[in-house]
Amino acid sequence: MRRVLVKGAGVAGLTVAHELAARGASVTVAEIRSQIGGKASWLAGGMLAPWCERESAEEAVVTLGKTSAEWWDRTLPGVVTRAGTLVVAHARDALELARFATRTRDYEAVDEDAIAALEPDLAGRFRKGMFFAGEAHLDPRRVLEALAGKLRAMGVAFLFEAGEIAPSGFDQVIDCTGIAQAEDDLRGVRGEMLILRTREVSLARPVRLLHPRHPIYIVPRADHHVMVGATMIESDHSGPITARSLMELLNAAYALHPAFGEAEIVETGVGVRPAYPDNLPRVKRRKDGTITVNGLYRHGFLLSPAMAEQAAGLLFNSTTDLESDNEADRQRRSA
Ligand SMILES: Cc1cc2nc3c(=O)[nH]c(=O)nc-3n(C[C@H](O)[C@H](O)[C@H](O)COP(=O)(O)OP(=O)(O)OC[C@H]3O[C@@H](n4cnc5c(N)ncnc54)[C@H](O)[C@@H]3O)c2cc1C
Question: Of 6, 39, 138, 202, which residue is the least packed, with the fewest Cβ within 10 Å?
Fold first, then answer.
């Protein structure tokens, strides 16, 4: 039985641990913090939105991400909500909708009545929008905790507040430490978010409000909570949300529906997304033999199942040439 040490208990580490344990490996997950969460994965919106993301992402994000909702459904039945994504813009930002449409596919154009049918609380507020019926969402915190619980039941060991662990006790080390991983070409993209609570607006699915400078999305959570996200700032600074970002996110939420102005601010948060120069994730093998799974950027929940499967394929098929097995690289080369 292969003994594998997975460093990092974010979505990358936990999905990798799952795929390895499911293939019979003896897996230990070492997390530097005292519990699951707190870093990028904890702050995520949880949108599984490959077709919307195509607006600013490579085709590989669609190829690798389009079956991710099935993976999450299969792995943790009941955690995925399949209600699609609604994209709207105010009339003055109609060009933004047109631009979004040219860069995406697999949507249906919707008018005011269709928007009202999908999201009754947005009735009369938007004349045009786009509905991506094939997309889904999940609650990242619920999912990370449920996945950790499942892993424990599968026999995976967790070490919290883990310091340096001697690799000699393991056949393989897999580094899933996100932005903490010291690598030259990895950069941080700061994402600020809010959690609001209101009974005045209720959404059934993620809603994206397009805007030339401050596009936002709102993802419904249980118990009248919503997650409002997110800024995209080229920085690995993880300090508290700035006043400007807080104002912009709140303004945008208010522009989606004025009742958000009365919502309680339950939480503000900042996560640093780990990204490679082309914003696509990679499974790599370092010179010292460590496998790294990183660069999930805006797509941790969307793409970690595919990356975890690649990492497991690499480990269980040692003849696999990683470069040729890496779908993201293949896509890049053929582009
Ligand atoms: C505001 C925001 C919104 C987002 N929305 C979405 C979304 O809607 N959909 C989506 O798919 N993605 C989304 N993302 C992206 C997603 O959150 C990231 O891509 C993903 O969380 C990266 O996961 P990770 O496991 O690589 O890193 P992390 O979640 O940062 O996990 C790394 C873990 O490694 C631990 N660690 C660090 N150093 C060590 C060490 N030496 N030893 C052991 N452990 C260590 C850390 O404590 C941490 O727990 C969003 C991100 C942000 C910030």
Answer: 202
| Identity of the amino acid at 67 | T
Alpha-carbon span 173 to 158, nearest angstrom: 14
Q: Is the CB of 174 under 6 A from ligand 1?
A: no
Ligand 1 atom closest to the CA of 217, numbered from 1: 8
3-state secondary structure of 110: strand
- What are the residues whose beta carbons fall under 8 Å from the beta carbon of 168, sequence distance 6 or more? none
- Sequential DSSP letters for 83-106: --EEEE--GGGHHHHHHHHHH--S
pLDDT digits (tens, 9 = 90+) for 264-308: 999 999 999 999 999 999 999 999 999 999 999 999 999 999 999
Decide: 191 in ligand 1 pocket, CB within 6 A. yes
Q: Measured from the CA of 8, which atom of ligand 1 is nearest?
A: 34
Say which residue the tokens 């883990």 belong to.
162
Is the peptide bond preceding residue 101 cis, with omega within 30 degrees of 0?
no
* Residue with CA closest to ligand 1 atom 33: 8
pLDDT in tens, 123-162: 999 999 999 999 999 999 999 999 999 999 999 999 999 8
Does residue 79's CB lie within 6 angstroms of at least one atom of ligand 1? no
Evaluate whether 10 touches 41 at the Cβ level (below 8 Å). Answer: yes
